[in-house]
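Database export, one record per block. Field names are fixed; values are copied verbatim from the stored entry.
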Amino acid sequence: MPAPEAAPLAPVATPLASGEGWRLSDIRCQAGPGDRAFEERHEGFSIAAVAEGSFVYHGEAGRAVLLPGSLLLGNLGACYQCGHDHSRGDRCVSLNVSADLFGEVAASQSGSGRYRFPTSAAVATGTLLPAFLRLQSFASMAQAGCDDGTVLALLEGVLAPLSAVTPRRQLLSARDVNRARDAAALIEAQCATPLDLASLASAAGMSRYHFLRVFRAVMGVTPHQYILTARLRRAAEALAATDAPVTQIAYASGFGDLSTFNGRFRAAFGTTPSGWRARH
């Protein structure tokens, strides 16, 4: 009687960060030659940076060999298999995006909200390289560095070059300009409180992605960059005008921990908070 066929070795996904409409995971697989190919179905649109190992991906666009430096691209609902013909194990940092969020970004970058990846893999060269490096870095940055804004920027960085369509120039209405300015005023008034893209977009009555694009077009920076600048400016003023401890000023300015504050402050002003106080 033949021996029963061994069950496929399923990859293990470790959650790294998540937000409304997206999920970031560190995915590791220990399968090798002789192991059954693992069959699965994409629950959303997937963009994965291959960090270690190699494997063969069989999907709706055919067969693709994935190596370190490659991007795996998966469409919502597509079934696929992964196999390891020549080596054992791999590791990917994967971003899974909902249909609604993907469609909104795709409509801007490719010209169609129904865009689907035409290929299962792409080598991260040229204009795709920054997106690959950003995605790979999320594994170490985790919650501290991955937010709605960085995820949306990554999607733009992948969809624009793959679709080979020049993004349409954004025409701003007077209403959109006023909304962006109102959001900037809100940030100035409440920068010491928790603020994120979702809450700011909700206050402006816009979707997250539309708000991000409008704010960036009007103000010249992303909402996240504007928040950081407002917090650093407030901290610099407090350091020069008061004798309050640096830690107290950091927390009062909206920073969650002292090390992050010190790093941001040095990057912005070229000196430590104590050095700034001594000079001003």
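Remark 1: The longest helix spans residues 223-241.
Remark 2: The mean pLDDT is 86.
End of record.
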